[in-house]
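Quick one before lunch.
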Amino acid sequence: MKAQVRIRGQVQGVGFRPFVWNLARELGLKGRVLNDAEGVLVFLGGDAIPDFLHRVEAEAPPLAQVDAVEVSDWAGVVPEGFEIAASGGPGAETRVTPDAATCPACLDEIRGDGRRAGYAFTNCTHCGPRFTIIEGLPYDRAQTTMGAFKMCGACRAEYEDPADRRFHAQPIACPDCGPRVWFEGDGTAAQVILAGGIVAVKGLGGFHLVCDATNAAAVALLRRRKRRPAKPLALMGTEDMVARLAAATPAEWSLLREPAAPIVLLAKGEPLPDGLAPGQSRLGWMLPYTPLHHLLISEVGRPLVMTSGNLSGEPQVIDNDEAREKLGGFADGFLMHDRDIARRLDDSVERVTEAGPMVLRRARGRVPGTFPLPAGFEDAPQVLAMGGQMKAAICLTKTGEALLGHHLGELDEALTWEAYRQALEDYRSLFDHKPEVAAVDLHEGYRATQAGMAMGLPVERVQHHHAHLASVMGENGWALDQGPIVGIVLDGLGLGSDGTIWGGEVLRGDYRGFERIGHLAPAALAGGDGASREPWRNLLVRLDQAGLADLADRVMTDKPRAVLRQAVAARVNAPLSSSAGRLFDAFSAALGLCVDRQSYEGEAAMALEALAEAAGDVAPYPFTLRDGVIDPVPMFRAWAEGRDTDAEAAKRFHAGLARAFAGIARAEVEAGRAAAVALSGGVLQNALLQDMLLDELDGLPVLLHHGVPANDGGLALGQALVAAARALPR
Ligand code: ZN
Ligand code: ZN
Ligand code: FE
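Model of the zinc ion complex:
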């Protein structure tokens, strides 16, 4: 019996060839295995081929992701034994794996008394740095920031032994040959943290500012120094600490323990200082994901605040000198090491909803993972999609796959813009990408749009909410010609096809185009950008619209109402918008949450969701629907009657919005004009709203985001798919 086996997916740089080698030898099979441009290729001779095919998928190494195992005939000569052959030609090893948290075997070594006892850079084929240390391809040590460290004899022996779990582990290291760690400050890092100080810790994708999460004064000090009044701070805890201090469900535990080790939003358990996440019902937790984290947290013995080490608005610091210079004013000491960070990556942020996991910020551990393009996109051109202005991320398509880049941040900031331009170059060379089309948002004020238009490529302009819709369709493998879908896109702000600002939309369409069949009744964004920062502005406008101006006068006595009303009446710096995000802001201000100013994007909406979670069963507030326009006037009037507690009101608001939007979508599907419903847009990071929409849409096929952010971090995937679809023949 002979066969050729092709394995596709994330199968390079994860120990797949030695795994195949061991498996084949155990089964008495002869032949060879090699990497090539399409993945891993195996040639097999022997009786146990069926066993092999079963086990190669079932027992694949922890970091592997097998997308396909394809078997075909092999006419070659079966060799004497089984060997790992040289790579098959140029471009053969172009796949890069995301960084992975320290594996249990390495952790045992760090805690044991072998040659890697207490060693902060222990890693193996199943764990350790990848994307954050790569400087070029193919992925081998010389092309990483480990190239500067010459492997010792003991490490080399492991590296060259296919039976060792460090076979071809490029960042392999030990205390004799690898990077070292040191502390700049008085005493040790743990002593400074236990004394209430703040330490800058060099991690995998950048520096963190770290303090004792149980010490309210230390948390307050960190907020003061960083000038970050309210934005939630991420926490790191051992499994024991998380079990005690948070209330994680089994699904949340498995997400925490994934090799990606994301920050997961968890319900609170035993009390911790309020200052960690004022007004929020959840805290973001992650497990230690590098040996250095494990060593530090076991010495401190307490959960740690781990917030990104940066100046306000700037990207995270990655270089030692830059850290000393920029973080010197924040930190009482520096836990440093001498392995360079090739690429800045924030921690990923995720949550688990009743409908599964949801990525809010896609970065370390998730990139450069790719998504398969849906059926029908096989002949798509190589597209470079530029993303939006907020939560910028780019997307590249090539040979049936989409590479969605990492979260970069807001492009208004000069250094983030610089990072964006670097990422463009970086991903293009890593993915060996030769773009044929650039895809951009309609908004010409976005720097990403301008950059795309200046690329010298044909440009495809994609409406913002159409891109959100295409993004969730693509993530769910909706085929190119599977027919129209109805999308509920609840978002902040995005430029509409009619030149007004959209954001609470029901679209019916496919990848190529769409129709706007429903939307929230528009309201003025009083003060332009100011309306996004100051929730009360939206409340004033909505109350006035609802004929509740006298109520607005009573609840907003200290605000410049007359000036604002004049501006709205005269249409001065008060563009109309159907934004769902601003309606959330308005209603959160109505309930006294975050009235004056949001200190970070989404603060008001998150507070409203947290408040609503506290309420029991309620009836939805009424919204009217006329000619596809969803009007919140009756909702504000019902609230103004004053019969509901704030928590009930918050929940009735969510329920009413869900009912109104789902109603339009259901009618489209039931009339046969759409085959399914899709949910996207930044407002759908709200798990309660998603659950309520799913209840209202019960019985219909619904597409949701899981691995692609519903917010603008997922926009570029949709842009790429729309541009690709338009380039393909019908
Ligand atoms: Zn390991
Ligand atoms: Zn060594
Ligand atoms: Fe958006």
